[in-house]
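Problem 12. The chain below contains 307 residues. Write out its predicted structure in token notation.
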Amino acid sequence: MLNINFVDAEIIKDGTSYLVSDNTLTGTSLEVLSFIVGGIEQSQNFNDGIDGRSRLFQGSEEKYRKITLNVRANAEYLQRVAHLRDAANDLFSGEYYIREMRIKAAEVKYESPGERTGNMDLGASEYVNGKQFKVTKVSAIETDDLLQSNFTIELETTDLPYAESIYTTKELNDSGYDATVAKYGLVDNIDTNQTQYEFTTSEFSIWNAGNVTIEPEFMYLIIRLNYAHGTNGVSIKNLTTGESFILNKAVSGSHVVLNGMDIRHGALNALRDSNRQRIRLLPGRNDFEIVADRFDVARVETRFYYK
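Solution.
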């Protein structure tokens, strides 16, 4: 029987990649029939107006999103049915990243009886983009006791409800954008003219290709000054958001690092010596200014996040 994988999925678990259609656990016995990414579940907050009739919207909170895989299992013989069931449970267990894959086109030419217009080689499934979701399985895998069986896997995002880039801005800075490299998606909103995230100047701009504001409390964000000097301290300003981090302490050749919620001056925790303000990155262009006597390199390292 000819299996054509129009859709596929890659699971990255504990540093190991598993292609659902071909991996060390289930072999080539699984086919992904559909990969459905749902919208973000939200909790809405309302407050009744003082007249008892009006209903005031007070905002919403984004919770998680669902991803549904419809999968077909093909067993060669009856004992293999049980082995494949257990292997599928192992493959989809735990917490992991998942990436969507599809073939580029599914154009099959019409053939009259006895005529051959070509073969059925439609090419391998490719990454849809440079994004991944961190998920866990929330439904039981229920397969029929047959050589061929279809089943549904329901996944929900963990940590954040957003897709995130599989690459960091450091990788993008070091290699530059290359459309032929699989990890850089064509629809990731990368600005090919703004792929620099390391600077030696006190004023610079960086591009947040995602459509979500990057918040250091919840997301991967490291802002650092290497070998900084400042008799009266140093400051890092995002002029776009109006936020400034100020270190009110003399700095003499050490690194100043904002790693999420952790603030370091050299090896020391510098939170109490600062204004305690964090710096976010808005979608699109963010203009920065560094105030210091001098420094070697300023670097902004993050991932991009997408609704």
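Discussion. The chain is about 5% helix and 45% strand. Students who got a different answer should revisit the alignment rule from Section 12.3.
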